Amino acid sequence: MYPAYGLYLYGEGLYAQETQVLKLTGAPVLFLPGNAGSYKQARSLGSVALRKAENVDGGLHLNMFTVDFNEELVALYGGSLFRQTHFLHESIKAILRLYKHLKTPPQSVVLVGHSMGGVVARALFTLPRFNARLVSLILTQASPHQAPVLALDPYLLDFYSTVRHRWVNQANKLTNVTVLSVGGGYRDYQVRSGLTSLPCPSEDSNKFSLVVTAVPRTWVSTDHLSIVWCKELVLATVRTFFDLIDLETRQFTENQERKVAVLNHHFIRNPARFVKESPETSSSVQDIQETGSEVNTLRLTYSTPKEGPVKNFVFALSSRRKAYSHFYCRSNNLETSSWVFGCTRKNGSSCVNTEDLSKGTELLPPYKVLVLSLHDLSAFSHLVVSASNINGKQFTVECEWQRHQSDSQTLTLSVPSVFSFGFTSSEVTVNSSGLLHHIRLQHFHQAYQAFRINVISQCKALKDRLPSVYRMRVPWFREDSLTTVSVPAVTEISGMLHTSRPDNSSGVLLELHTAPNCQYKVSVRSSLPKVLGQVLRFCGPTLPVYTAVTLLLACRGQLSSILKRSRTVDMSQAAAAGLQPHKINLPVYVLHVLLCCSWFQEVWSSLWLPPMDTIPPSSPDGMFREGMAPAEEWPHLLSPFLYVLGAAVAFWGSSLLRLLIRLLSLLLAPLHRSSVSGDGGTMGPRVQIFISLCLTVVGGVSCGALAIAASSLLHLYRVLRLQMTERYLSHMLNLAPQKHKLTENGTVREESSSKSKPGLLSEWALQEVRDNLELHLCLSALFTLPVMLSAPSLLHWIGNLRYASQLDPDPCWPHTVPLVIANLLLVNCTTLKLSNSKLLPLASCLPLPLAVTMVTFSSLHLYRITHFLSAALIPLALCCLL
Questions:
Q1: 560: which of 184, 217, 504, 819 lies 20 to 30 Å off by Cα?
Q2: What is the C-alpha to C-alpha distance for residues 439 and 442, in angstroms, rounded to an integer?
Q3: Domain of 527?
Q4: Core vs surface per residue 569-586: b (16+ CB within 10 A) or e
Q5: What is the pLDDT of residues 402-440, one digit of tens each?
Q6: Which residues are catalytic?
């Protein structure tokens, strides 16, 4: 049923030999590759898991399976996504059958999906016969859960719609499934991290979405492929798997609370202790607190000697409750996981009722940090910080009392406008000598905003200090980014967002873990290059629409020129004239405004018109919605800019096409006989009918994209012959004056005058050939777009040709016949035929309304571009007949 796919078990060394008979005893994990991904990518997880198993007592280990999806381009061609989903279902059942010999066989399989593999993993639950208990945990890496990056065919959108309906509208049936989605950050140029957010209800505590920069012990951004083998992320994933294994059953736990706790530990907030580690007993703490040193100052800084005694510091809470609200403490190289305790002391006696408070510790790159609220410590009279140098490693402990958050510890800084273009900046100076400061960046909540945040640190005295950590916290999405620097230093932080604020939550918070007795100056300046980068990151997938609009209006300009003066204009001039934002963006914006009115929406719905496509919203919960909130108006303001970028692509693309035509014509010229006729590459009516029928049949029985590409090549050959004829005629005209000069002093003057007539004929013929060449260059640029948009289908068909001769389903088949017929009819098209056609006025009027309609309905449905191009090319092809 699935000859192109395969299921493999990863192994190496002795383990590979032991598992050849497939008598498995480990916990099953299944890796799913993504778009054009190899099943061999599972080696990153499998190899580390084997090394980890060697150091684990009790023989606990993982069985790493991987699926071979034949490296299909499923991110661009959605016809095989459901086939992959069904094969995944069969693979899971086959894996579980391998454990039937065990007394307690596993009841489920953990799935790890990269890119589109993560989307396929979630699609399992859309199958009618799938048992949801077979999968209880899914980890996805750089998977576009919100929407496809490029919607090049309707099957891709149908697949996403089905998955979204299952996970959003029927979320109550999937509460037992834990899903963790990790985005790659700003280095992932293929799938922006905003798309990796899981579309699920916010109250579902079993679904996690975050960016890899916020993962403890990782803190770095990855590109789309390296997220699979990023060592820090692989270690976090493998540690998660081993912590999820139940020691009794030796399989993954089914306890939902346990799964959530382990994922929180390794991916959300790492308290710098093992998951299974129990707090130190109160008795051991009481023994060491009798020798503790009382700390009466507001700040403690202590560095241990290489070999020091047991050292503990005691802080009295009673005298600090009124003036202070928090206790902040940090330590580097302190391997003891339990290091801060609360206790009760009476009349100077030793501590009683001791409790470990270290479970709230958070791990940062250079040290671990603990912030305690005094409001939660009403049951204790003292805090004890253990700074014992047990292992002989030097470390530093810094603690301080902090005032209320509304006081000097929190500052507010309004970010400058994006339209300041970096000429103005907002600044604030942190003069306090504290260890932790917060700066609220007001009005920073939109994805199109981008800033350069400079932090300049200056210290009074030169001495060794712990590094400073600058963290940018985003309240509505786990996309925190951390920067570690030594002090004093000048540091630049990129202030950008993966998602816009979906509601009225608080703004971005800049958290500064600073060195004592140092001054920090923070300045925020808008960055135009970063703003443009954000625009391309969020709106770049719409550029093909504006490129097609520009070429369509360029064709309109050529037809209008033929209609008025029976001549064409230069292709570069026509492409430049295709930039007409006032005729495109203004009507589209008017439609958007009208759709905000209820009466117009009713009229729109009564006409059975599809929803208006808008530039994809940037908030996690805004994908696929028909309307847009006022905060999402900014994409409409960017439409003219996107139009300029699309026109630039069209202009330089057409220039590159002209250059390639010239080079190919030079290479093919020796294979063709020189001719002054402009009919090279044309076909007779019978030949056109025969080729049309052949290509239609080929497209039906194999792949529609193949027929479209073949017909475009026939038209390209016509352009090459016109280029050869134009070069030959130009060469003849350059030689004609020399012949006339040789005969000028001859005895028979009539002969020289008669020889001038062919020269006049050649100039007229050259002009006609050039007009036809400019016309066909414009048409060839238009034909290139359907070929490029259907290329993924063609590549998928070629990759699976040894398994199936027909592409099923074929998204190109609906417009294969009209495009093939239009291509072949336009091969014989000339400016003379068009100027004499009665349909030319109609054909020249269609591109503009079609361009407006294309922008209205194709931003989220790129495959519709081909439909609109077909609607413009068919009337033009009929002009060659009527």
A1: 819
A2: 9
A3: 410-536
A4: bebbebbbbbbbbeebbe
A5: 876 554 467 889 999 888 888 888 999 887 678 888 999
A6: 115
